[in-house]
Design goal:
Blueprint: H1 21-31, H2 37-56, H3 65-72, H4 81-90, H5 96-114, H6 124-131, H7 142-156
Amino acid sequence: MASRNRGRPKLRDLSRTPPTAQEQAALRGDFNKNQPPIVTAVLGQSLLEIELDQLLRPHFKHHDDATWAKLTDDHGPFSNFNSKIISARAFGICNDVVRDGLNTVRNIRNAFAHSNRPLKFSHELVVKELKNITLPKVKRSSLCKSLSVVQETSETGE
């Protein structure tokens, strides 16, 4: 997808192009491998955001690629994970419990991505955040199941 930069792609466009099914499978495979904690944090959030995108798009009358690109560009209403989480709750895609879990993943990812020090999942503040995620045991949505995979994988990391 080209940006408004006179048709020339920008680096930012890479984060806006949805992955193919094969690329998603490769990302899931990478997530389940023993990765450094920062990779687990960033990749886990990315996988959840991909799924959230797939759940949000059908709720719009126009859910074509061009419209979605405008919604998710730098100035669009869905330019970040937080906006997507808020919208998913508003559309009834997730309940308060899943929304809170997604926000926890967002906060952990931000801590790993922006910390000036190397973090591990064993850090007391990260452990505290992960323990705050409460998910239902039965009748879970696909987003809830994905969130629990992220939580379990994060808990087994360093």
